[in-house]
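FW: tagging you since you asked about this chain on Friday. Here's the raw sequence from the shared folder, copied in full. Didn't touch anything.
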Amino acid sequence: MPWTSHDGGNDKKGRRHDGPMSNGPWQPRGQGPRNPNPWGSGPSGGGSGGREPPDLEDIFRRGQDKLRRVMPGGGGGDGLSKLGALGIAFVGLLALAGWMLTGFYTVRPNEMGIERVFGKFISITPPGLNWNWPYPVGRIDKPTIGVQTIEIGLRTNESRRGTIRDVREESLMLTGDENIVDVDFSVLWLVDAKKPQDFVFNLRDPERTVRVVAESAMREVIGRREIQPILTGARLEIERAVQELMQRTLNSYGAGIIVQQVQMMKVDPPTEVIDAFRDVQAARADQERMQNEAQTYANKVIPEARGEASKITQRAEAERERMIADARGEAARFIAILDEYKKAPDITRRRLYIETVERIYAGMDKIILDPGKNGAGAIPLLPLNDLMKKNATEAGKR
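HL: got it, structure written out here
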C-alpha cells in the first residue's frame, strides 16, 4: 500500500508539516513521497489507517500516576519525596550507629590503652572494655607493659631449639688498655606505666632504640676499663654502670622506658687469640698463687722473728737493769764496809775473812783433822745439807 503525505497536513499526534514530506527509506521505489514513520499509517485525510507502536512516554507517565495514587498523601509528589527522605535518614542513622559501635575496644591485662582524637593524646585507659571515637576521628595505641628482652651480640633462634647465632659486629669492643674483648649481654626493659604516651609518641622504633642505646652504653663503659678486671671480677660493676647510663640516655630522649636489668652472659677475648690468652691467664694465676703463698709465709715468719727480737731485747734490757742494780748494790755495800773499816780496821778485816771462807766452803765436803794425832784421826763432818736435799727429793716423788 502506498504511503502518501499532504502539504500542510497534520500527523497523528497533531504535529504540523509544512510542505511535502521527503522520501523516507520505507517508500517503495517509484511510488510518490514516503512517510517518515515506518510504524504508523498515512496522515489523516488520506489512505487507510494502520497500527502504531507503543509510546514509551505515555507508559512512563501512566506508571507514575498509579504510584502517586498508591502512596499516602493523596497520591501527590510530596509523599514520594517524603518517603525518600525518610529512607535516606534511616540508612544514615544505621550507618552512624554502626560507625559508633566500631569505637569499642579491649585492652588486655599486659597492655595500656592510649586514646587519641584527631591525633592528639587524650587519656590512658586501664585494661578492659573501653570506647573512643572510631577511625578516622580517634585512634587507639596499646603498648605492651610487660618485661621485654633484647640481646646484644647474639641472637637466640627459638624455632630451632634455642640455637644461638653470634653477631660479632655488636659484641667486639675495645677496652681502655687497647685490647679487644667479646661481650654478649642482654637488656631487660619495660614501658613506664606512668608515661606510656612518651613511649608511643617519642619513639618511632622502640626496640631498635633500646638496642642502639644499650650497645653504645656498653662500649663506653668497657672503653674506660682495662681488660683484666673486665674478664674477672668487675662484671657486677659494669652491669650497674651500663644500666645507669642507659636510663639517663633514654630519659633524655623522653622514651618512657625503664631499664630493669643488664646481664652480661659472655665476656671472652676474640676467638682467634683465646687459646693464647688463656695461657697468659693461667700464668698470671700461677704468679698470683705463688705471690700469695710467699706473702702467707712472710706473714707467718716476720711476726715470729719480730716477737723473738722483742723477747731478746726485753731480756737484755732486764739483764742490763739487773747488772746495773747489782753494781750499784755492790758499790753501796763496799762504801758501807769502807766506813766500818775506818771505824774498826781489825774487826772489819776478821769479819771479811770469815765471810769469805764461809762463802768458799759453803758448797764443799769438809773433813776435820785433829792435829794432836798427827793427822791420823780424821773426823768427818755430818753432811746435813746433803741429807736435807735427799729428804726433799723423796718427798717430791711421793
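FW: Residues 172-269 form a domain with the Tetrahydropterin Synthase; Chain A fold (CATH 3.30.479.30).
HL: agreed, and DSSP finds ten helices and 13 strands in the chain.
FW: great, closing this out.
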